[in-house]
Amino acid sequence: MKKEDKFTYLDENNVEKVIVFKDDDFDFAQKDKNIHDVELKTKPTTFFKDAMRRFVKNKSSVAGAIILGILVLMAFIVPYVAPSHYIGNSPRNSEIKLPCKLFKSGTGWWDGTKKYSKIAYDIDKNEVVDYESRAIVKGSLKVSKKGDYYVNVVQNTAKGGYVRFWTPASSLAADYFFKSDAIGYNTNAFKYVFDIELLDENSYFNDSFKDGFDKSGYKMAPYSINFEYTDILTGEANTVVLKEQSSDYSKFSITLNDFVEPGMYSKAKLSFNIKSDEEKNSGIFIKTVSFSCFDSLGNPVVNNDLDNLSLLDANKALLMTPGTAGYWTSNGNKNLYKADMYYASFVFDYYEKAYGEIPNFKFGRTDINKYINNGWLSFEYNEEEKTITKFEILNEERCPIRSADKLEITSKKGVTVVNVYGTCSQYRYLGYSKMPSFIFGTDNNGHDIIKVTFAGLRTSLLLGFLTFLVCFVFGLCWGSISGYFGGTVDLVMERFCDILGGVPWIVLMTLIIIKWGSSFGTFAIALCLTGWMGTAARTRTQFYRFKGREYILASRTLGSSDFRLIFKHILPNSMGTIITSSVLMIPSVIFSEATISYLGLGLTDMKSLGVTLSQNQEYIQTYPALILFPSIVMALIMISFNLFGNGLRDAFNPSLKGSE
Amino acid sequence: MTKYVIKRLLLAVFTAFIILSLTFIMIKILPFPMPGGSQIEAQNAYFIRQVELGYVLAFNSPQDHLGTCIFKYTTSGTVANSQTTYYYVKPVLSQYGAWLKNIFTKWDWGVSNKIEPNVNVIYIILSRLPNTIKINIWSVIISVPLGILLGVIAALNKNKITDHVISTSIMVFISIPSFIIITFLILIFSYKLHWLPTKWPTPSEPLLTRIKGYIIPVVSLSFGSICGYCRFTRAELCDVMASDYLLLARTKGLTKRQTITRHALRNAMVPIVPSILAEFIGILGGSMILENLYNIPGIGSLFIRAISDHDYNVLFVDMALFTTISLLAGVLVDISYGFIDPRIRMGAKK
User: What pTM was estimated for this model as a whole?
Assistant: First the structure.
């Protein structure tokens, strides 16, 4: 049993406590070991390892470095990997400015489609004006109903309405007429009838339709209908009033034979004559004027000329140009009133338009031969009977001709031309193996925006890196000389820098580019002219810091030359700091280049990111996607470069060591 | 102090002189700027002015030894009494001499050839300067308090979530080039939301539109400055907050608020105030792209127009203005340091 030491004490509640100490509780601090200096337990590290460790600790810098790495990698890979955009030298119109497409068409978002509403719809042809029906996403087309929209402006797709024929207030009561030239029938004794329909006064003023006309200052005018003709026998020009001054605005017919003897006239025209009101705008609305002709038995006679002269559709009549048979004109004011208009809202698939299937496409014999030789197609035809005897698609992926509908064989001067009409798959025709989709669309030259952007980024990075290298080497030399020798040399060199640094870089670059053009080389030189000064100043500071140190003095004492001192002793010590703080020159060069591009002096022989951005600026309103992606890449590269550069600079800055 | 100021000013004037001379010579090496317009009389008037200024020589007969004739003017009238004037460009250095004489004796900076033919360049610049200055003043008014406030908030909450949020967003916004910020502002607020005009309103538009027209230029100009001030203020204030004298102030019994307002902020302001002065002047040149993208008739957009129109005289005077402004900003910063910081003032006295 070992000897125990017991201690007893009273705690704050006056309870007795005992503590027992055993021998095991105590150890000798020093018993048998040798007494000598202990070797260092800490691990050795170099300046770079330590800087690396401190850099990794800075999370945002690491993130910046990763993003930067990805972007740089993409800048060098994407332009080579991305497929070529179009076959031939120039893109087709439909491939220009395609919208962004990431998902399958019909997903509704980011699928290469655009929503349109209130686009004119041609009700006769059952298609949207200027938009191919084949590219309209199925089920998305909605056409307005009759009566939903009216227009008062003549246009191709409007239908019906009234010809509004008016005279302004306070103008003298004047005759206006609306004439149809050359109703000249002088040979047969048929019975001619004019059916005329006008807009009823009451319905006009009671109409709740918001037609854009101010009805308050408006009055339906009294009118008369005249018939002017040349008498075939005497050659005299006559005017017959078919209907007297009237305020009857409705449907009526006039039988011409009641006024003029048939077969007695030529060069006739029908005119509406309205009386102007001195206080209000006055006018009438003509809906239809139709001519019909009956034989002596009362049976209608088909007469196309008469039909042509009829005013059956106000919009169509006003669209007619002088010289056509049914041309209606006036020497007063005329316009359209309340024509029916149809509008469609739909989703338009631009990729379907550019790369989808088009029917009835003409394939030449050479095309077909090429497909057969490639083994895509098996095709035979009978030349005599002009029939296709065999049509089979062998390569589903590549064969552009999807069906052969018609064979056309023509012989001219002994040369037989064979054409096949059929459905053409455009993307296969252009050489794609599947429907292309550009995530950020295509630009105004039909190029994939991603490819253009990264190609531009590559140019910008190259320019930045090249400028960095040149400026770094030059700045290092300049700063070394200035910093090492000091004195008058330093003063003169510093003054030089002051003066050159005083010129705003924009001014200097502008001058150089105006003088020598903006090729890649000139650009790099112009950027280098001002770029080296930062490195020079930093190098100079580092030299001032190190040149007074003891190890320099020691080396000098041993007889080292200036060259050896600069390049063996001082420079290696300061290199890390100088490089890392000069790295930030690359983003600033990219920025400068982009700025100059915005001034209209950008690179001409290569497309940089700045040039892409500034050229796409004009599409900011119509195709913002053209700017969006390059802008994002530009912003990302600047942010990541700055984060990375700042992190690197801080990590390599010895004065910040241990402050975190 | 006076000696220091004079020395700095003289150095700046000397630098400006050298830079302007070099710029002038470089501009004169470029092809001679020909007048725009189709009226031969107006073009002749431009050349007569150039002769007066001493850049061009006029002769009544061809002078082949002087190089190529840049312009030929024949007075109207019969063949017998009409007279032809031939114009030749003087050598660059003698043009430089003429230029020095014009500036120092008459303050004559020449005329424009394309933008507003035969109009004095100084007049063109002065007529556009107000727009640029207006935008910049508003930008400074907004960015200084905001930037300093954000910087103070970040510094007082150093290494807390507020500081991290502010510092990171500042880092991000300072990295994004100004033209991208402008593009996005126009894209979102003008074209998508239709809240603001898409370009600089003309004076004839209603007051509200004109006020709205200021928003995008001022905001986009302020972005950079706010970030700059904020970062600077934060760094300075953090430095001061960690200093020994602030600890002393706390130990002698001042509250935290008192130490910050009486000691920390005032000391931190020493480098901030000069930077505001520099920014105020220096920002004038920063609005070049903004003015171009937003169609503001200021001196920045004038610069770009002068480049595209090859109106080198306007370009030169505009460049001279930018150069002078940037040099002036540098001098002002140095001098104001002296006025604000007693340590520098005392140092200069010795």
Answer: 0.77
What element of type H or E holds A614?
Answer: helix A609-616
pLDDT at A181: 53
Asked if A539 and A478 count as a contact pair (C-beta separation under 8 A), the reply is yes
A69 to A165, B33, B348: CA distances (angstroms): 72, 47, 49
CA B348 remoteness from chain centre? 30
Would strands A281-294 and A218-220 be described as parallel, antiparallel, or unpaired? parallel
Distances (CA, A) of B301 to B105, B129, B297: 30, 11, 6
Alpha helices in A103-214 (DSSP H): 201-206
Nearest to A443 by CA among A100, A89, A96, A78: A96
CB atoms B304 and A600 under 8 Å: yes
Residues in chain B: 350
How far are the Cα atoms of A260, A264, A295, A302 from residue A307, in angstroms, in the given order? Answer: 21, 21, 16, 9
Interface residue A635 vs chain B (CB under 8 A): yes
The residue whose two tokens read 């850099």 is: A55
Report pLDDT digits (tens) over A44-99.
Answer: 777 778 888 888 888 888 998 999 999 999 888 888 876 655 555 566 777 777 88
Give the residue-averaged pLDDT of B69-73.
75
Among A60, A599, A617, beta carbon nearest to B304: A599
Radius of gyration of chain B (CA): 27
Residue A638 contacts B, CB cutoff 8 Å: yes
* Chain A residue closest in CA terms to B190: A621
Residues of B in contact with A507 (CB under 8 A): 23, 319, 322-323
In this prediction, residue A557 carries a pLDDT of: 92
ipTM associated with this complex:
0.83
List the single best residue of B180, B187, B327 to mutate versus A (max A Cβ within 10 A).
Answer: B180
Closest partner residue to B327 (CB to CB) among A502, A510, A613 is A502
pLDDT digits (tens, 9 = 90+) for A189-243: 577 788 888 888 877 777 665 566 667 778 888 888 888 887 777 878 888 888 8
